[in-house]
Amino acid sequence: MGALADAEAYMQLASRAYDKYAGILERVPQGLANNLRVMLAISYKFSEDGFSDGYMFAGGLGVLGNVVGVAGEDAIERFRDVHDIDVLVRGITLYPEVGAAFDVIEDYGRSYQIPNKRFIRGMCEALDGSLMEAEADVFVPFSKGKRVEDSSTRIWRVMGAYIHEGHWEEFDSRRAVEAQRNMTKANFFGLSVGCVHPLSLLEMKLNVVCSHGNPREKDCNDVMNLVGVLEKKGFPPAYVREWISPARRACFKNLLTNLDYAPIVPFSRSYKGELLK
Q: Quick one: how many helices (H) and strands (E) in the chain?
């Protein structure tokens, strides 16, 4: 069996969450269902091969992971559709690990516009024999435009934001809030999934939203959900305000004031008021 079938077998035998998982998949948009399953296949493959801290999901699935981390798996049913996968790997040698999660690879290569971006397109076979087609954008580390390995100076550039080596440590709520820019782990049906920290995701999403005259609704809604996640995790509004670059603050305040959307992870009026200062 491949990684997806193995992950689903694990849900059946170990976590006993398969029935809930299968029920949710039937009730969400097809794009989200397919990409969620491939995300879990990638997570399972990394974990089984001893690289559980070697990847983090960004983009829509990264936001979903943060939402599930504070609101539980039932929140998946309220989440938007997702059409691709964005994943960071801790080293260039882990890029093939993403490919190994697919049962069939149809295409792969690199982006010539974004030096640290690769892609893999293929299919994963589920436990029931059905095939899930997906495309993963894989971000590898670089330094001044070049790949680097085993160096504390390596960075990842994703959607205009920078992830640094220290961000790969797992989030620990017992530490000072100012230090919490690290990986978030979410429990999906008994599987632990690594996701980019909500502050970094907020920066990425604002870079996307605020650079377009007519931003996509899904990106705006992602911003609102991340605000709810940040309040749930106890991040002071003043710290969140400081994290947002001056060039994005007016855009962010406009979203908070005018967007008509009830986030899956709601935030309080007082939290919103403090963010608008």
A: 10, 9
